[in-house]
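Chain entry —
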Amino acid sequence: MQKRVKEKKQENENDTITALNLCKKARDLIRIRKPEQAEPLLLAALEVSPKNPYVLVALGDVKRMQKQFKTAAKYYQSCLDADPLNPFAMSGLGDAYRGTNNLDSAIEIWTKALDTHPENYLVMTRLADALTKKGDFTTARQIYERSIRLNPDDPFALSGLGNIYVRLKEFDLAGPLLERLVAKQPQNPRAIGALANFYRRQGDFANAKALFQRILEVDCRNVYAMDGLADCARGNKEYEKAKQLWEKAMAAGMNIAIAQTRIADACLQMEQFAQARHYYDQVLSVSEDKFALLGQLRLIETEPEDKQNKIIDAAKIFDRLLVLDPSDHRTLNEFNAFRIRYPEIDAYIQA
């Protein structure tokens, strides 16, 4: 009996060593961004060691790199079932949730990860980025500052904090911080992008454009830089150029709904009404998108049409917007402005 127990123990140890060796080879492939080649090694490792946390996290990373976020989440969760406080699985699960636009769940798991490992500055920046997207600038700012105290040169925290300053229009704080960041990391696309965004938000499109182009010299398929260049063209009223740049960004992987809405906006500025309607309709055929609906409102007002038809069509759009979010400030402001011009619209609103 003791002999059998000893043999079983040795067998388990051998399986663990085999799994770890396969995992190590896979990690080398992951580092050079070859997840497709890493995956078979990890699946082989999983066969001999099904609950190994290193293997499960690595498989989650591989699936996340391939943008298979739901499958990635399953692997991270399997790791957490066996090892509930595993920091890599918690961080990865948050990344997977973010990949499916489930920011609330991402924030929840990253908050838990930070409670468990309070000095994990990599999780801090992820959490702060998500809170920024949710509009919680105060909490995000506190977390970025906490991260910078732990790692003063972290480009993610510095650029994130700089972007918070820009959004709050605290340009006197944003400028020096972002310039210092780019001076320290002159080839870092995120650092350069944050400074470019600083200039863009102030309407300095020449400096912003130069920095976005600098990013593309480092990373020719950087979607953020393409989008930034398009926005600079729009700021300079070069709408045809902006349209072409957004089409290029969309082909490179930019979020389709965002790109198509911005292309439609550019078409509207050029009075290409049929094209604008086509792109807005493309977005809305997939989901009820607030910005596409607001774009359709601008189209209704701009395009020559009978006043009564304008009011009826606008009322339908406002109904959809109010169903999406009856307390949205942008929607309510647009509605109040439209009512001033067309008070008859009240008779047609259903929401």
Observations:
- Residues 5-11 have pLDDT under 50 and may be disordered.
- The chain has three domains: 10-92, 117-204, 239-351.
- Residues 117-204 form a domain with the Serine Threonine Protein Phosphatase 5, Tetratricopeptide repeat fold (CATH 1.25.40.10).
